[in-house]
Design goal:
This protein has nine helices and two strands. Strands 1-2 form a two-stranded antiparallel sheet. The protein is mainly alpha-helical. The radius of gyration is 24 Å and the shape is globular. Helices cover 73% and strands 2% of the residues.
Length: 293
């Protein structure tokens, strides 16, 4: 009976493909499917929803820490927020020497770290928990729902493009429009007019490369982590369908528990490290906007 039931269930490939598919909507909020690699006629509604929700949660937690701050002996939550804020501020001081700029950039970096950490941490939830809940709400057993926004390239590139815009603003603010325009055509090879097109091209390549690598690094790590969790979930699924202590499928259940526990513990380091790296690169790129060539 178990084998017969399993025959009607999705294959491993179908299971992974379903979990890697986003809930996609056009701007009339109709269900659509992306056909091209780049398609601006639709958006991933699940990534947008979870990004906004977790961003609001991150801001609320930081606001709560600031609101409940006291001058006496801090509680655990206040101490954690203070340690985190001090860590970010110290990193900002080492990269951005303009105290006035740090009044905006330091809170921005802190928000980026907490927000990305929260989005990354969604990977620690059971793979099928929220997708099955969504299918129950909609009544559609094939409904799509991905809950890790940073495993979506559109999210991570959106974040990196936002950092690029901040860098461009500070380039103009610190150096002036004329000063930055002069830098675009004279760095890195010199101010000779013959070199202006080459310098400008190199500057554009640098901005594009930094932005793409900034977003791709976070996406690649989180996508890979999500995929590993799906593979571990499949081990448990095979065990559940073929439960028999005398068969090899039984030991897949043991492997599922061990592998899932080990990977989850290791992944806590990954999600923290990726949030920290994204925050540090944000500080470095904004700091570079303050430097003259």
């Amino acid at each position: 009976m178990a084998a017969e039931t399993a025959a009607h269930g999705p294959s491993a490939g179908e299971y992974i493909q379903h979990h890697l598919h986003h809930l996609q909507k056009n701007f009339s909020f109709e269900n659509v499917t992306q056909k091209n690699i780049i398609d601006f006629s639709l958006f991933n509604a699940d990534s947008v929803f979870w990004s906004i929700l977790l961003g609001a949660l991150a801001c609320w937690l930081l606001w709560l820490g600031a609101r409940k701050a006291t001058s006496g002996v801090p509680g655990r939550f206040q101490a954690a927020v203070e340690i985190l804020s001090e860590m970010v501020e110290n990193q900002a001081k080492g990269v951005i020497h303009n105290a006035k700029s740090r009044k905006l950039v330091s809170p921005l970096a802190l928000t980026v770290f907490v927000w990305i950490f929260a989005m990354n941490a969604m990977d620690l939830l059971p793979v099928d928990l929220l997708p099955l809940a969504w299918q129950g709400v909609t009544g559609d057993h094939h409904a799509y729902q991905r809950v890790v926004p940073t495993a979506d390239l559109s999210t991570t590139l959106g974040l990196s493009i936002s950092v690029l815009l901040v860098c461009l603003v500070y380039n103009v603010k610190i150096k002036g429009a004329g000063g930055w325009a002069h830098e675009l055509v004279t760095a890195p090879f010199g101010a000779h007019p013959v070199l202006w097109p080459i310098n400008f091209l190199m500057q554009i390549i640098e901005f594009v490369a930094k932005t793409v690598s900034h977003g791709m690094r976070l996406f690649g790590n989180m996508f890979a982590g999500e995929l590993v969790f799906m593979l571990i979930a499949l081990m448990g699924g095979v065990w559940a369908w073929q439960f028999n202590p005398l068969s090899g499928g039984f030991w897949l259940g043991v492997g599922h528990v061990i592998a899932g526990t080990v990977w989850a513990i290791f992944h806590i380091l990954i999600i923290t490290l990726q949030a920290f790296i994204f925050m540090m690169l944000t500080l470095i790129y904004v700091g570079q906007a303050h430097d003259a060539h």
